[in-house]
Design brief:
Elements lengths: L8 H13 L2 H13 L8 H19 L3 H4 L9 H14 L1
Helix pairs in contact: 1-3, 1-5, 2-3, 3-5
């Protein structure tokens, strides 16, 4: 159902927001449904899924850190596109 991806910041952000508010296990099947119900165009589904996965990873990681740890800087290594996605997600989680 996924078409060739074109960066969709809105779909990515919605995936992050959904992961922030729900468990990943409850959300994964929703990607297919989002395509079937035209919630997102096929070219945006990959970004929606990416937002959910990165959002779930950041959410789980934050559970392991104390308040003191949260004030420390974070170094990111990766492509510009990937680190941008993590920066957006981390900013969303505050």
């Amino acid at each position: 159902m996924m078409a060739e991806a074109q960066w969709s910041p809105d779909a990515f952000q919605q995936g992050v927001d959904d992961a922030r508010n729900d468990d990943l296990e409850n959300l994964l099947f929703g990607v297919r449904t989002a395509g079937l119900m035209d919630r997102f165009p096929a070219c945006s589904l990959a970004d929606y899924l990416s937002g959910m996965l990165i959002g779930a990873e950041v959410k789980a990681g934050l559970r392991r850190f104390s308040e003191r740890d949260a004030r420390q800087s974070i170094s990111m290594l990766g492509s510009a596109q990937l680190t941008q996605r993590y920066a957006i997600t981390i900013a969303t989680f505050g």
